Amino acid sequence: MTGSATFYDVLGISANADEDEIKRAYFRGIKAHPPEKDAEGYQRIREAYETLSDRTARKEYDALLEGGDEVRELLDKANDHMANERFEDARSCLKTVIALASEADAAWNLYGICCLHLERYEEALKVFTALMNRAPDVALYAAHAGHSELFLAEESVRDSEKAKHYRLARAHFEKALALDPGNHHHHLGLARVYSEECRFDEAIAAVWGAIHADESVDLGDLEALFELCWLHIYKHDLTGVGKIADEIEKITPADPEVRRYVAHRFARLSGMLLEVKAFDAAKSAADAALKFDPGDGDLVGLKDYINRVILASNAFDRLVHDSEVIPPIKLLCVVLVTDLTGESMDDRDGQVDRALEAIGGYYGHDVVMSVNRLRTHYSQLYSLNHRLFEAIDHAAKGHPPSTYSGGSTGSGCILLLIQAVTVGGFLGATPELARYLLSLGPFR
To answer: Which residues contact 184 (CB under 8 A, 6 or more apart)?
Structure first.
């Protein structure tokens, strides 16, 4: 967003737009500027919508736009700075506007918004508190005060301070809802407070309040529905994610572009869950993504990968208690599962060295039996790097390596490993080669 932009310009509507036009423009805007791709653009659209959808706040804003030439010129500059995310410059311009028109609540509101962007939360709260006292019937100012309290809670170190800010934020959003019960943003603000307090059932109820605020469920409720997905995940209710996907399915048209967008949102959700190792939840989100775009090869690959992680993790949970597999084989499986999930491992190469050295202390028969059991009972783990386990198996059996006549580097290293560890019947003589084999997997 560039150039001087009033809130009407941000939404792409005329100053005479009615409430329905404002709402439609808002939905178009958040689709073009989704929060995960353009957080600032999304926030600017939301700020414009919140002001113009509140009748009193809009009236104040219109009066400000109709001020004298000097005020209008300064306001244009402030709008330009805000559109280009230069909030300190915008704040400076608005200070002058306020000096010229100290009773202009709309200018104070813009000033408070700039303070929020600049993380000057105490100052923002003072501005919105003063606005609430001066205009107690404007829901927008109460909601902005609620957001200020939420940000202050995030900054607080002491639990008692956090609890105080959450309590005040909740009171502000409840006041906003009492003044404007049809505004879904106020419901979502209250839901966020409940979520931060880990009161997830109440948060879910508040989000449903946002969804039904206009007595209909449509694509404009997409953000709220995805918020519900997160809340169900926080509750460890993975069936809830599937149910929300079904709700989204009901409101999603057959338009391929829209369905791909929804699939992308679920895929992004899945990716974020993978980053925190919430694999079961990531699978639920990936399943939902495929519901909307089943032909996407990347999504199919994502789901296959998550399935492999879950199966391997479950297999390892069983392997830990299996006395028929020697400990160093289990340790190698730890390395492979860690590699598969992308987690870090302290002294990974040292762990491999110690595992291979330990294998050398076992009878070949025990090693062969362990590898065989891994292959037959824990195939999900064996397949993570079957080359390594085949090499260990051959070496433990004392089989001479087959004649090598070319092929992949990996195959050559396997033969070298077999040959090296067979000499003297000692396994683990070449841990650097085993590490190379481990670097070939896991194969995704």
So the answer is: 209, 210, 211, 213, 214, 221, 224
